[in-house]
Amino acid sequence: MTNYQGVIFDMDGLLFDTEQVYLDVNVTLAPDFGLHGLDKSYMMNFIGISDEEVFATIRKDFSHLPSKTLDDFFYAGRSLVREMFEGGKTPLKPGAVETLELLRKHQIPSVIASSNLREFIELLTEKANIDHYFSGIVSANEVERAKPDPEIVIKATELLSLEPEKCLMLEDSLNGVRASHEANVDVIVIPDLIAPNPEMTSKAKVIVDNLFEAHPYIVNV
């Protein structure tokens, strides 16, 4: 048996290999719109941050450009990402399906808590045929404050109808770890593009290399 009665999944960089997609799309489009300096190192600062916050920061950093130019850049990026997702070829992270099957086998409900838009969460999970594993979704559309604010994690525990102490969060980003910690939910970190820092190490229950390695901490297998 497990001490956890519900599991909360982040999505980008945890279930799907999407962080690299967002990075590549924005870096590729940036020169066409005059956003010189928006390179890989710049975009790495936005891992685990909501689109709203990313766009606000870019507007500030590139305020010398016309507002319409920035609007067009954001629209082009989101449209290209949507097109890629609709193609159904966005890869799942190693162990994603196996972890969901493990939870199903042990009758442990799971939800997604992601700072992404509900539109993209539903699109990705449906195209990958994993939407049926989740009993609910909490997205950027349902909260006022994205991670690292704990609101999204708290809403996820409410969706599961469980006390925070009975839930486990699976995360890849520092902001997600901070949100889980503030919500009093144990968190396992599976790093994606950014290596764990001391804060992540201190706040995580454990850090593992992939979702397969998280299984013994979810259930006694």
Itemize the secondary structure elements and their pairings.
Blueprint: E1 6-9, H1 19-29, H2 40-43, H3 51-61, H4 67-86, H5 96-105, E2 110-113, H6 118-127, E3 136-138, H7 151-160, E4 167-171, H8 174-182, E5 186-189, H9 198-203, E6 206-207, H10 215-218
Parallel strand pairs: 1-2, 1-4, 2-3, 4-5, 5-6
Helix pairs in contact: 1-4
Report on this structure.
The longest helix is centred in the middle third of the chain and has 20 residues, at 67-86. Helices cover 43% and strands 10% of the residues. A 6-stranded parallel sheet has the order 3-2-1-4-5-6. The protein has 10 helices and 6 strands. The chain is of the alpha/beta class. It folds into 2 domains: 6-17 and 91-218, Rossmann fold (3-Layer(aba) Sandwich); 19-86. The mean pLDDT is 94. Helix 1 packs across helix 4. It is globular, with a radius of gyration of 17 Å.
Short description:
This protein has 10 helices and 6 strands, in the order βαααααβαβαβαβαβα. The chain is α/β, with parallel strands linked by helices and 221 residues long.
Order of helices and strands: EHHHHHEHEHEHEHEH
> Which value, in Å, is the CA radius of gyration?
17 Å
Number of domains: 2
In spatial order, strands of the major sheet run 3-2-1-4-5-6
- Strand fraction: 5-15%
What is the CATH domain class of the largest domain? Alpha Beta
The CATH level-2 architecture of the largest domain is identified as: 3-Layer(aba) Sandwich
Shape: globular
According to CATH, what is the topology of the largest domain?
A: Rossmann fold
| Average pLDDT over all residues | 94
Strand pairing plus helix content: what structural class? alpha/beta
Number of strands: 6
What would CATH call the homologous superfamily of the largest domain?
HAD superfamily/HAD-like
